Amino acid sequence: MVGGEKMKNPLTKRLPRELKGDIGKYLVIFLFMTMLISLVSGFLVADNSVYDAYKKGFDKYNVEYINFVTSDKLSDETIDKLEKENKVKIYDQRYYELKEAKRNSTIRIYGERKNVNKLCVMSGQLAKQDDEIALDRVFAKNNNYKVGDNIKIDKNTYKITGFIAMPDYSCVFEDNADMMFDSVNFGVASMTDSGLSKLKKSKLSYCYAVKYDKEPESDKKQKDMSDDFLENLGKQAVVTSYLPRYSNKAINFTGDDMGGDKAMFILFDYIVIAILAFVFAITTSNTIVKEAGVIGTLRASGYTRGEIVRHYMINPILVTFISAVIGNIIGYTVMVKFMASMYYNSYSLPTYNTLWNAEAFVDTTVIPIILMFIINYAVLSSKLKISPLQFLRRELSKKTRKKAVRLNTKIPFMHRFRLRVVFQNVSNYITLFVGILFAAMIVIFSLMFGPLIDDYSELVGKSTIADYQYILKAPVETKESGAEKYCVESLKTLPGKYMEDEITIYGISDDSTYIDANIPDGKVYVSNGYMDKFGVKNGDKIELKDPYSNKTYKFEVAGSYTYDAVISVFMNRDMFIKTFDKDDDYYSGYFSNKKLTDIDDDYIASIITVKDLRKVSTQLKVSMGSFMDMVKYFGVIMFILLMYLLSKQIIEKNSNSIALTKILGYSDMEIGGLYIITTFVVVVISLFLAIPIVNIFLHEMFTSYLYTQMTGYVPYIISNSCYVKMFIMGVLSYLVVCVIQMAKIRKIPKSDALKNVE
Q1: Are residues 318 and 215 in the same domain?
Q2: Quick one: which of 201, 320, 578, 583 has the most CB atoms within 10 Å?
Q3: CB-neighbour burial class of residue 16 (10 A; exposed 0-12, middle 13-18, buried 19+)
Q4: Residue 554 and residue 107: Cα distance in Å, rounded?
Q5: Residue pLDDT, tens place only, 15-43
Q6: DSSP state string for 480-521
Q7: DSSP annotation of 9
């Protein structure tokens, strides 16, 4: 006590000096951690905010519970009867499907929609005149339309008055059977009711939306009510399409997808923070080695090991806290808009409000601080367990110091020196390898995306069954040669490890000219994608269910058929007819390598071409391209960061030796060759070793995580070019670091050789 005031703790007085003395390390880690936390925070906040807008939209825009299409218009009497018997309200939602002239895209045009599935105006306004139209925002963006532009549809020209979002098309699926939406070649729009009535009648579909008088209490109740309504509807009309809300992809796909990436982002956050915590711990351990005499003096003066540990932990915790605060501010203000834009690039969503997210705060602030504390405490506590006397003597190992590894004298001196550098910095190099491994995984994941989609698109084109797959509303004959009848149904996988997936069931002729598969009676073939995704083998039994009932079907797998486009099951037509209780002459479509011109459009439900099958690749490139670029840049920054921090520690740890070699007459370039080239060799080896490890990890991620969280199938393919690009990026990143480290070597004075001599 001096003058009644408590003396300031000397450890506290050291903190600013330590921070200033190693400002480069702290600044680099701070910037990287801030960027990471802003990225994760922005995503979590955007995901939560956009999902909230999506869910609230069901009530706000009065979203339908059932959507159905009939072959003819329902009479007022029929509608009244159905409404009274089923306690529902039926709304006319008729639409016209026409072709847009610019790229021959399909546009599904609805009327004003004032009562159900209400429109959300994103910009501009709704159509007010018969020659005006409001386009879906995502379709307009993908086709470079702006408010005020003219659009030519079916030989007529319309003025675009605004962009809209339809709640029943939050994900713009053209058909519920499609494995992927395509907002480039398919869009929805709204016109005035009077303008709609002037369109070509042959393109009219009698579509209706259903709302229950009383909201279903549960999913099971909703399904029961839907089944009852379908049964009654079937007695009153010919139904060509029936979609309850719970199985409507255009409504549900968006919500199912949201949150699917959350676990990956959070895991990514934790892993990177853990790596940074280890880097902090290692660099602080090196500081402890340099300050061993000071620590020994402090311990001898009465400071406890716990006080010393806490002292060295303050700066890492402080940097993490400040990074978390600033990162969250950026996340909530800037990054949230970027992350939300990724959803809005893919989905036709209503406007959202940014919401406070407690989970995001925990994942980006609380958990990082805890990880930083635990890892640093564990490493530093172990490092500081020795006695004060050992610190003063610089005997920093708890165990008897091991003799240096004896190296064969036949090895050239320079090589022996570099090996010594490696042996003396094993912990640093191990951490460097782990960091490079993780950075390589991030880079390869981002690089593999484009080639994977391209390869998949090519595979789809090569393995297509026919140039045209016709699916009919009702059986109709064709005189075109080469057309082959087939049967088709859709079933679903059972709930479990994987998301419910739609499986296309084909019934094919024994002598099929389009599908070369000798399928045994009573058994089935599955597509190669089915086998790969679900891990099915020959002889296994698979169980599928009817989408609209509890009825299930069991099949024995006899083999696989190469068909990459759709997850499918193939069986003989006779087995199909027996399984699904159809008439002996039943068929529901044609395979053909040329367009069938003698079938009226009214009898055609859909035509599947190679272009349709490639929708997955088209849409993924549009919606995910910018995000993958960001991930790639993040990986490169991580390369540079880790290489800089750890090579910096190696230089600092060996400053005495470097100073001594300067005294012996070695130039800065020669010394750089000894230390920098040694690390370069370790970097190159690490990059090579990372390739097979990353391949194994990503394959496991595909099969164990992505396949369980996504519907449909995309094969796991990594182009060799991805590995080459990753390797080049890693090497170039280290070359950037080399320039910085050479400058540091030049600044080491010869006098350092006389310091800290043991």
Answers
A1: no
A2: 320
A3: exposed
A4: 39
A5: 677 667 677 777 878 888 898 888 888 88
A6: -TT-EEEEEEEEEEPSSSSPP-EEEEEEE-TT-SS----PPT
A7: P
